[in-house]
């Protein structure tokens, strides 16, 4: 039995897609537990670049099953578009993709409300992906959301539910933003999606629990990252779900006792998209350079990502929150031409060391990071065939991170392709496969 959680240890975009794609070889199912099509998981192989937003990356491995759990918010239009683009690339999802009947739906008006709300916030906007994620989770929490099981009901029943909800949302939208809700043709459009998605709908919690108890191996794929978690991240500059490892249990309907390991993914540095505090953010010139080398532009929105040094304070927090027992370091090759590398080892606030991650952004914005400077390796790691051939300074950098965090490094990645991924022998991560 194995159920391993893959969690972003930073602000998302750590390269989870690539890691999941690699690890999926050794698992039977890959299940996505939170978020929606705000995520963009990139996998490159055979010269093709796939960006998956909703469907777990395991789908790219023949014979593997992919599950979208109840904790995910699903825009049927985005899901159908993703299924179509996979079909175009010759990847058939039939009999391999399972969509939770309890997942909440995103409607176009969720996007409309989000865009209006962001505009109303002015300079303090969150910088969301404008996919309607937050408003859909708001409806879920306020117990007025519609779920996949509602869409699967008979047409008249769904029509009635949606019309009732749309009238309520229209009144809120007019009062709050002075805009009517765009709902024309909505019911018919969603009823068409219902027919396309019906063959994939399942009780995915029952399916997963059954599979695990039969000895199948499940990889539980998170979206976004620890610092974007609604409860534990840099609130309010966060996403609207639990992206931390606990979300795998609630989002998939699995007991915490089924989890056998948690792998945290971090880049060799840090990036963030959208607003909010970022203690180790680099000055513009340096950030620009790293952004170009690391191609740090959003996979979903194309937005330039903010860039900074690795933050061990944040990673220690992520390890504690998620129970990370193996760390994967991605994009090590982006530092190939970096003369000196800095790592933040502590925060000071008003001159004193901070023992805990501050809960409020006002404090986090004012912390002074303490850095250790390490030498770069000034050699290419991008074409390595064997991790034993890593330059000594690169090995020292990894050892420094592992020692500073008190956790093993189980895998590294030195390029965007599938082949540039190395499992480190003798690690816990290797033993889970
Ligand atoms: P939302 O999830 O679209 O509501 O956006 C909330 C915040 O999370 C914004 O700062 C987004 O940029 C960020 N965010 C959401 N999804 C991702 C992701 O997959 N990678 C990185 N940042 C993300």
Summarize the structure in words.
- The chain has 433 residues and is an alpha/beta fold.
- It contains 14 helices and 20 strands.
- Helix 3 packs across helix 4.
- The longest helix has 23 residues, at 155-177.
- The model has no long low-confidence stretch (mean pLDDT 95).
- Bound molecules: inosinic acid.
- Inosinic acid is lined by residues 11-13, 38-40, 126-129, 131, 133-134, 223-224, 228, 237, 239-240, 273-274.
- Inosinic acid (IMP) binds next to helix 4.
Radius of gyration: 22 Å
Note the beta-strand portion: 15-25%
Mean pLDDT over the full residue set = 95
Tell me the number of structural domains: 3
How far apart are the termini?
11 Å
What coarse outline follows from CA principal-axis ratios? globular
Helix content: 25-40%
Assigned CATH architecture of the largest domain: Alpha-Beta Complex
Spatial ordering of strands, largest sheet: 9-7-5-2-10-1-11-15-19-20
How are the elements arranged and paired?
Elements: E1 2-8, H1 16-23, E2 29-32, E3 41-45, E4 48-52, E5 65-68, E6 73-74, H2 76-88, E7 97-100, E8 104-105, H3 108-121, H4 133-141, H5 148-151, H6 155-177, H7 186-197, E9 201-202, H8 204-213, E10 217-221, H9 246-252, E11 261-267, E12 270-272, H10 284-293, E13 306-308, E14 310-311, H11 312-322, E15 326-330, E16 340-349, E17 352-353, H12 361-366, E18 368-375, H13 392-405, E19 409-413, E20 421-423, H14 428-431
Parallel strand pairs: 1-10, 1-11, 2-5, 2-10, 5-7, 6-8, 7-9, 11-15, 14-16, 15-19
Antiparallel strand pairs: 3-4, 12-13, 16-17, 16-18, 19-20
Helix pairs in contact: 3-4
Bound molecules: inosinic acid (IMP).
